[in-house]
Amino acid sequence: MKLIFAAGNQVCKTGNQVFYDSVAVKQVDVPSFSGSFGILPKHVPTLAVLKPGVVSVFENEGAVKKIFVSSGTVTINDDSSVQIIAEEAAAVDQLDSAAARDVLSKAQSELSSASTDQAKAEAAIAVEVGEALVKAVE
Amino acid sequence: MYNKTNSSEITQSMKMVSAAKYSRAERELKQARPVGVGAQQFYAKAEIQPPEDAPQKLIIAMTSDRGLCGAVHTSVVRQIRNELQKSAENTKVICVGDKSRAILQRLFGYEFSSGKIVYNRFKSVVSYSTQQMPVFSLNTIATAPKLSVYDSLDNDVIQSYLEFSLASLIFYALKEGACSEQSSRMTAMDNASKNAGEMIDKLTLTFNRTRQAVITRELIEIISGASAL
Q: From which residue to which does the signal peptide run (chain B) (predicted)?
């Protein structure tokens, strides 16, 4: 099962935007809006939209890599290739729990002070990401 | 002569600047490429074709605001112009960047069935090629014959999926374009410096010759004046 896993966020010193570039893996678990599901080779082709949460990649050598994603898409094709494109992504072990809580509390205060519908929706998304982020680092 | 030396200094330093910017653009492009490749996979694997009965097309021109970088922008615009000349009916163009907008017109609020992004794909420091990436509307995807092999899809999922995938494609095309632009500007400025150098040589030669001619003429006048006495 060939996996492409890339994100659009800026490259920082510790993190890399591209996690997998056509690498064969055993299994991938993704959180999607229609529910979390695991992808094994020969999964039925489908499209899904990623929900903020943790993607688990089970590599062929047995290692399990956990990567937090904010949003994005996952595509499973009929040749068993999987593409995950995330808006922002980072390995869970590189997340800082205090910073994650900061993000959540900042988003919550933005939500309570938001006046327009658009600002409210944006803040609600930020809260959702923040909650998932805090859950991921715990 | 002073002016020419000056402009070769300017082009020389512009080349240095774009060389630095280029290496950064290339580094970023390397990271962005899987995003674009991944986003394109679905369209290729699902064998989605533009519908024949709905000819509304959309072309997205990927250029930037800055010039002095060779034919990067013109080659994008030229490809679109050729296409418009073939059939301008049912086609709208969205321009990214001032350079293409100067030539093409920007339009909004248009129901398209299939479209494409025209961008410069970066190949190496000295070459890029103007290429096209397909984009499709929700309707086109929903009626694609091979979509039935994809499991549990509803319109909401496809809509969100398409929106994000279009954003990824544009992100990727911008990165490709930026990298091509910097590499092309580097070459263009290098050539400009070379041309300026050649010009300086030629002009210096003309200058020296003229000076010699003036001196010789004055000498002749003095000598012939003296011998006439």
A: none
Set of chain A residues whose Cβ sits within 8 Å of the Cβ of B172 = none
Contact pairs from chain A to chain B, CB under 8 Å: 85
The closest of B135, B164, B137, B96 to A8, measured between CA atoms, is B164
What pLDDT is recorded for position B54? 65
Nearest Cβ partner of B168 from A34, A44, A85? A85
User: Is the minimum CB–CB distance between A99 and chain B shorter than 8 Å?
Assistant: no
Residue A37 DSSP code: E
Three-state helix/strand/coil letters over B197-214? HHHHHHHHHHHHHHHHHH
If DSSP codes are grouped into helix, strand and coil, which group holds residue A107? helix
Q: State the complex-level ipTM.
A: 0.74
Domains of chain B: 19-186 (3.40.1380.10)
Record the pTM: 0.75
By DSSP bridging, strand B91-96 and strand A89-91 are unpaired
Report chain A residues whose CB lies below 8 A from the CB of B42. Answer: 47, 75, 77, 83
CA distances from A80 to A36, A43, B141 (A): 19, 7, 20
Chain A hits for B150, Cβ within 8 Å: 44-47
Cα A43–chain centre separation? 20
Whether residue A125 lies within 8 A of chain B, CB to CB, comes out as no
Quickly state the pLDDT bin for B107 (edges 50, 70, 90).
very low
